[in-house]
């Protein structure tokens, strides 16, 4: 704690408003992480109210199509984009000739230790050993339900170091300390490109975008490393991953930032992302969670702000992290879609382990 008080941000740039001498901050909220007193109040109220209640229904599970997942990299011509929900915020996105994992967590618990902490309600939809070769891993921030040490070490070992980890600013050192050296770190609005194995294929762009959240692995490193969402541009598929976030103007800013690439002589050309992966779970109680986790109604607003053609809900149904039951997000999402004249074709959910093919741009 004392060391944290004197910590210096080695990336500090006074010309960037989200940089601070000791770390980083949000664009539209000074701070969203709560004090220990507020955490204690939340836990006491949850104990008194007996929340979260047990779910009425378990999260639906599908039998993975392993042949389909493994065939993607070898197929010629290139197949249509496809996504597979592994669980929580972990999605396998196969597009642009790359197999990309978002915030992979395959451990039994989202915790610094595996004998305590939030436990998986069901196994990953695809076991780590059954994954196709992973080209890129995207990390949104360093909370334990999004960045798992055992998982990233296993992915790195499995690929013999060829898997590329793309992370927010400040996290590269954490990876290199684990012996993972194929890492690129980005600030908000920075971009890196990745070339698929087929040398003639166009590169895929990965942009780190602002979202409203925070970071920490312990008590003394609050907001010491950056957090963010990801905008990914392959020639035939443009997709977005929110990571963890509260609702803010950052999503309108993101669409505005990328709008020029969707226009030609002032005309909209396939305006917006083809798919957005948006968090829909871990949102109660609102007095505690609203600034850092969106609820389904706000997730639908993000879908609109981004002008996404389709969205899929993530960050639900896997770990009991907050006060709503594990099966509450689908119910609240259905209400939000109806209120916005949207359907499940516009914003859908997957079964754990399910693969869905999406239209090519």
How would you briefly describe this protein structure?
The protein is of the alpha/beta class and 361 residues long. It has helices at 2-5, 36-49, 66-74, 149-158, 172-177, 250-258, 286-289, 296-306, 328-339, and strands spanning 19-20, 23-24, 82-87, 90-95, 98-102, 136-138, 164-168, 183-186, 191-194, 204-209, 229-234, 237-241, 263-264, 267-268, 275-279, 311-314, 347-348, 355-357. Mean pLDDT is 93; it is low at 1-6.
Description:
With 361 residues, the protein is α/β, with parallel strands linked by helices. It has helices at 2-5, 36-49, 66-74, 149-158, 172-177, 250-258, 286-289, 296-306, 328-339; strands at 19-20, 23-24, 82-87, 90-95, 98-102, 136-138, 164-168, 183-186, 191-194, 204-209, 229-234, 237-241, 263-264, 267-268, 275-279, 311-314, 347-348, 355-357. It has a single domain (59-357), classed as Metallo-beta-lactamase, Chain A (4-Layer Sandwich), CATH 3.60.15.10. The protein contains 9 helices and 18 strands. A 7-stranded mixed sheet has the order 8-7-6-5-4-3-18. Strands 9-10-11-12-15-16-17 form a 7-stranded mixed sheet, with helices on one face. Strands 1-2 form a two-stranded antiparallel ribbon. The radius of gyration is 19 Å and the shape is globular. Mean pLDDT is 93; it is low at 1-6.
